[in-house]
Amino acid sequence: MERTLVLVKPDGVQRGLIGEVISRLERRGLKLVAAKFIQVSQELAETHYAIHKGKPFYEGLVRYITCAPVMAMVWEGPAAVAAVRQTMGATRPTEAAPGTLRHDFALSISRNLTHASDSPENGEKEVALWFKAEELTGWERSVDPWIVEGN
Question: pLDDT in tens for each of the 151 residues of the chain?
Fold first, then answer.
């Protein structure tokens, strides 16, 4: 099973959309295996956004993600990265498909509600950055055969 990091960023938290994000991912069939509500440290923000260091928007990203609490989660399922990104919608909310979180609740790329890992490899790296192994909960869900099993 694939795992991916999902962050409800400060704008989503401030607007009371944590439940909406969780609800949509649960209804999609993904399984929540870790969650924590945290104030992001400068060090974690800089590490998370290290790929963007030196770009004109880097300082703003770090300043923004540390300005208010974030809901950090790990979701699991087959093709979890693709499923989460599809549920979130395009990074630019005005380009997001109707019915996606960003289309339904956002207008600006700088306030696009969520972060989601962009590849299975980055999903693994980001999960390890944000969560200790003991914070991840492996569990069996009774509905899984109705969601993820083939014939």
Answer: 899 999 999 999 999 999 999 999 999 999 999 999 999 999 999 999 999 999 999 999 999 999 999 999 999 999 999 999 999 999 999 999 999 999 999 999 999 999 999 999 999 999 999 999 999 999 999 999 899 877 6
Contact predicate 36/70, CB 8 Å: no
Range of the domain at 18: 2-37+70-137
Q: Which two tokens stand for residue 55?
A: 């770009």
- Stretch (H or E) spanning 129: helix 120-130
Whichever domain contains 130, its CATH number is 3.30.70.141
The count of domains in the chain is 1
pTM: 0.93
**74 in any annotated domain:** yes
Q: Which of the residues are catalytic?
A: 115
